[in-house]
Design brief:
Two copies of one chain form a homodimer.
Chain A: H1 3-14, H2 20-30, E1 36-37, H3 38-48, H4 54-66, E2 70-75, E3 79-84, E4 92-96, E5 102-105, H5 111-121, E6 131-134, H6 137-141
Helix pairs in contact in A: 2-3, 2-4, 3-4
The structure holds a DNA duplex.
DNA sequence: GTTATTGCAAATTATTTGCACTTGG
DNA sequence: CCAAGTGCAAATAATTTGCAATAAC
């Protein structure tokens, strides 16, 4: 099922409405391959319709996060970036702490760790929504070191 | 080696100075068993010396983070909390996404996962500085569910 | 029609900064 | 001494909010 259909479904499910602004934000997010800030999203949205307000962008991003379709992460301390994530298979998110890029992978390699943490430390992680922070290939190539 | 000695050492090493304010902030951090906000730290600091400014608290917290003695995490979206962490052994930090509490554990249970991510996805994590987000025992007991 | 949603502008709020003064080494 | 550190007050800046107008359903 495509992102758009998932979105429409979830909106209906909660009694929310499909608006022009929400469609635009979602389509703009598709145009980015890496993590982007709210302002970058806003700028791109403006190119499509200059009437859309930045507060609407924020409100839509929050909605998409509630729906699990977008994740956001803090990078560089002050910058918050957003990512559209696949709505298919549950998966772990490898989030680059340098650029905020997100890579979705299968959950199995972390299953052992998860059960270890639960049995030994009573610490519960949600594998279907597990974020691992590190360095992506690109940022490694730029010579950035893993310890921040 | 105690936190205080480590702190003094690191300060010397970088040519920074040991001030009253820095000592107070560090001692106040010892008094908290769980994660606290900058303002909570500031309030406690004020009880000891009302002359210390909140900007100094922020500056000191940043310094302590640079030294790897404090970690901070975002919880609940808007709240940022700080934790004094053990200066001994390198370890993984289990950070509760609900209350911000940090539990330090040994690195070995995650070694397999780390090498898997590196070989299969070219994604590099720093095991000595690995943060895993989840729910601590206390928050689980409060009936909070792992998916946020 | 009714109610969610929006645009606008103003508010919020945690954090940061410039600078003259103070203090540690 | 003198560079690092501080307090103060003001600036910042990203995000949020109240509300009347608008548009989905």
């Amino acid at each position: 099922m495509s992102c758009e259909l998932v979105f429409i479904d979830k909106l209906k499910e909660k009694g929310f409405r499909l608006t022009m602004q929400r469609e635009i934000v979602l389509s703009v997010l598709h145009g980015f391959s890496s993590a982007v800030s709210a302002e970058e999203i806003y700028n791109r949205v403006q190119e499509i319709s200059s009437a859309v307000d930045i507060s609407t962008v924020y409100r839509t991003l929050e909605l998409l996060q509630d729906f699990g379709m977008v994740i956001s992460s803090d990078i560089g301390g002050d910058h918050r970036v957003y990512n559209l994530v696949s709505v298919e298979e549950p998966h772990i998110h490898l989030v680059c702490k340098e650029c905020g890029q997100v890579l979705g992978i299968e959950t199995d390699p972390a299953e052992k760790l998860a059960s270890y943490l639960e049995s030994h430390h009573n610490f519960l992680i949600d594998l279907k929504n597990f974020h691992i922070s590190g360095l992506c290939e690109d940022c490694q190539e730029k010579g950035i070191s893993p310890n921040e």
